[in-house]
Every structure is written in structure tokens, then in C-alpha cells.
Design a protein that fits this description.
The complex is a heterodimer of chains A (175) and B (441). By secondary structure, chain A is of the alpha+beta class. Chain A has five helices and four strands; from the N terminus they run E-H-E-H-H-H-E-H-E. Chain A has a four-stranded antiparallel β-sheet. The radius of gyration of chain A is 25 Å and the shape is elongated. Chain B has one domain. Classes of the chains: A alpha+beta (175), B mainly alpha (441). Chains A and B meet through helix 4 of A and helix 11 of B.
Chain lengths: 175, 441
Amino acid sequence: MTKRFAVGIFEDEDVLLHAIENIRAAGVKIYDVFSPYPVHGIDDALGIERSRLPIAAFFFGLTGLSFALWMQIYMLGFDWPMIVGGKPHIALPAFIPVAFELTVFFTCHGMALTFFTITGLYPRFKVPVMDVRATDDKFVMAIELDETSSQFPRLTQLLRDNGASEVNQKEMTNK
Amino acid sequence: MATLTHQESATAEQLVVTDGARKTFITIIVAGVVVLILGILAAVLGWGAAGHGETAGHLGASAGHGVGASVHHEGSPVWLKRVLVSLWHSNVFFLGVSTIGTVFMAINYVAYAGWSVMVKRIAEALSAWIIPGAVIMLGIFLIGRHDIFHWTHDGIMDKGNPNYDAIIAGKSGFLNLPFYLIRTVVYLAIWAYFSYKLRQLSLAEDQLGGTVWFHKSINASALFLVLYAVTSSMSAWDWVMSVDTHWYSTMFGWYVFASWWVSGIAAIALTAIFLKQAGYLKALTSNHLHDLGKLMFGFSIFWTYVWFAQFMLIWYANLPEEAVYYNQRLGGFEGHYTGLFFFNIIINFVFPFLGLMTRDAKRQMIIMKIVCIAILAGHWSDFYLMFMPATLKGESGFLIEIGIAAIFLGAFLILFTRRLASASLVPVHHPFLDESIHHTT
């Protein structure tokens, strides 16, 4: 599927933030904004809902904790009971470090994989980029156009009025 | 402050301590005195046996078993011993929390942190207790050291004396009266001096403006942090660990520091919430609370980490001279401390961990308030667990201890609020004030 975008390039963070407010106030839906570094307050300006990643993280952590405890209790308590240092077979304090490590391991790997999957930022050969300068020193705002691109002249004017240094039209093919 | 624009700047705010607030503080002290007297009466007359196991009958029973708590009264009667030990206990707790105000400020200076400027004056005011706390500490030590510190007993380090204890004698190079007093005075002097210095620089900045005070504060803070890193650890050995003279733990300095530090941050957050709810600190938002909440959450875990690191190694190695520490707390003295031992982990780790886990919880005053109070009470009982088994064996209770803690709390609050009211709540000329006002997380 091919999507068309009006892509506005901004030079400055503050100009960008004000432009976002004005353009949203004008009733235009912004597709996304790309910046070289995290901009404070941009989530609120764009009206992005808070991520639900922490909830996923909690359950990944719970999985890791359960797995670690199950693994150690099963291995050392039932499958192959051994006396280590005169402690009981199921010696919980000794299991805590591994349980902690696996909780962290599951949480961070689960979060990273979930994040890449949901945002589509996972590594691949052909990476869709609105404008490569967004990885260097420019702020890029993308607004989705319809089939005919009839709003493009109006959007160009709107973006320019709000401080965009240039406005391009871009087609993205989404597999 | 949703409407705060970029041009607007915070103005000075003067705290007025109302008569109602003063009355509350006095009431806390009076209630503490009443509870203390009740506790002393209970200990002397033998009330409340079932709850605290402090009557002669109960002790007789435990002595009758022949194992565990062998009760021998040396020196003062039990109630006086309990008063002296809990004076020392509460004073170490409040003095530590008080110093954390300065440590918190120093860390924020050195890190060039901007967000914390809004609560900086609270941290400054916390240190109002250092001087009175230092005086009380030296006073208790000079009067009641025999009831608190085993190693100060006469003849304990003299070979041939009936009191002679070879292990304690081996530590006489460090644990002797002159050196101990010199160290204590040095720690307290360093803490008091830098608290005073940073406070003066901050007040001068309020009056005169300019960035010169800020840079001077950074230099003072950097020096203080180096000294504090050493003195906090050593004071933990001296004031807390040396009650268990035979025992030692290399984690102990960090353990005590973690307890003080998380309590100090809870005290700052709690004060900020009370001030906000009383209509002060207009530019304080849920963003600042969120950061304080993150610190409380993180350092509750840090405390648990240190606590567990100390516990697990001792449990695993199971060397008698180390394991006795947990023996006393887990089941020793007829299980006198077992309940508190597990309560300690729940209130200081499980509760803040689950309570402050979500973002929303850290941004809501009511949840933050509950967790702050739990952390402060929890770490007070953490210190209780450090002091009581070694000094009072199975004879500690709660009435005397809580009474004395309430007296300390009331007195602490009077001095704390007085210093809080003596300058603007917002450091109006701090170079990072604007950053703090616009802080978002």
C-alpha cells in the first residue's frame, strides 16, 4: 500500500513545538514527527497517548521471576536434589540472585522486542525514512495526504506559515 | 500551574507556621511524654506482659528454659536501659535524616540538577536538627554509654579482670573512649559545618543574586560528599554496629546510609506535599513529586539490595560469629523479633515497590503521602532492629520506644518548620529555578 505525505522540515525545536500546536489547532492531523534527539514536551504537544509498554514490562518481569523460581525449585528440589553447603534442597535465599537476574533479563528483552515490533523499528535491510536529515540536524513533520493529494498546496502554505524551511511531497510504500 | 508561560517567574513565598501547627507539634511531644510515662510504668510494674514479654514472670519463664535469652541485669534497671537505648536509637535516626537534607542538596549541586530547586529549601531546613541532635548524642553517650555499648564496660579490655573479653580487647585500637569521642565529634562537626555553609551560601544568593554563590556551593558540595561518604560509613560502625561489639559486617555502612537516605527523601517528599496542600510551593507540580517518588522507589530497592547482600552472605557462609546476628533476630529471644524482622522487609521493600510502581501512583499526593509515612516508620523500625537485640536482648518493647520517638518527632518538627519559615520557600535567585518551574517528566 502506498501512502502520500506532506513532509515539513524544521530547523529549530521551539519553532517545531509551536508549529505542532498551531497545526493541530487548525484541525490538521499530524501523522508523526521525527527528531534527531528526544524533545521535551513533544508527546503532550502531539497528543500522543502514554505508552502501555510498562504494563507489558510488568508481565515480562513476572514471567521471568516465575520461570527463575520454578527452574531452581524444580532442578534443585525435585529433579536432582543436592545438598549444597548444608542448606535445604529448596533454599530460597540462594535463589534470589538468579530470580532477580532473570526478572531483569526477561523484562528488558521482552520490552525491547515488544517495542521494536509495535513501532516497526526492528532492524531490516530496507528502512523506510521520511527524510534522512531527521537523523542529523533537522526536525521532520509528516502529514498524511489522501489519494489525490489535493490538500498539498494548502498544507504547504500552513507548514511554511508556521516556520517550516521547506516542504516536500513523499510517497512511502508499506509492505 | 498549567497556565504558566515562559515569561513568568516564581516569586518568594514565606511560610507562616500557624498556631494550629505549633499546637500539633506540642501535642505530639505531650503524647510522646504520656506514652513514655505509661511505658515506664508498664516496665516497672509489669503490665502488658502478653504484648511485649517484658514482665518478670515472662522473663522468668524464658530464663527457665536455660537456652537463648539468659537475662542478667547489669547496670541500670530495665526501664532506664530501655529509655537510654531508645534515646540513642531515635537520635541516630533523626540525626541521620537531618543530615540527608544536606547530602541531597550537595548531590543535586554537584550533578547540576535543576528539577530539585523547588524542594531545595526543604532539604536545607532538614539540617536544623544536626546541632541539637549532636548535643543529645554526646550527652547520651557520656551518661548512658554503659547501657548501650558493651565495649565501654570497665575492665573489659584488661587481661586478668573478670570482665575481660579477648575479642573486644582485640578491637581496643579502634573502640576506645578518646578515639571514639574524637571520631563522633569530627563526624558531627563536618556535617554541621557543611550544612551551615551551604545554608549561608543559599541565603546569600537569595539576598544578592548572581551565579557566584552557585559555584561556591558546588565546590563546598563536592568536598562535603567526599567527606560524607567516609564519615557516614564510619559513623554507622561507631554508632550502630559497635553495639554488637563481637559482630561485624562489611556491608553495614552502606546499609545504614541506605536507610537514612531513603528516609530523608521520604521526609522531603512528605514536607513538599504538606506544603503544597497548605497552599505553598505554587510552582511545585506532580512532575516534581514524580521524581521524588522515583528516588524513593529506587532507593527502597537499593536498601533491600544492601540488606539482602548482607543477609545472604552471612546465611550462606553460616559462620557462628556472623550468623548470631540473624539468630537473634530470627527466632532468638523466644521469637521476640521475628515478626518485626519480616514486617521490616514488607514495609520497606514490598510496600514501596508495589505501591510506587506505576507512574500514576508517584504523581498522586495521597499515595505518595502513605508511602512516605510507611517508609519513615519502616526505617525507624529498621534501626530498632539494629539496636535492640544487642542492647536489650529480649526485653525491648514499644511503648517507651514510640513515646521517645514521638518526643523527637515533635521537637524535630518545631526546629524544622522554624528554619523553613526563616527564608523564602522558593530560592528566588537560584540559576536553575526556571528549569525547575518548567520541569516535565
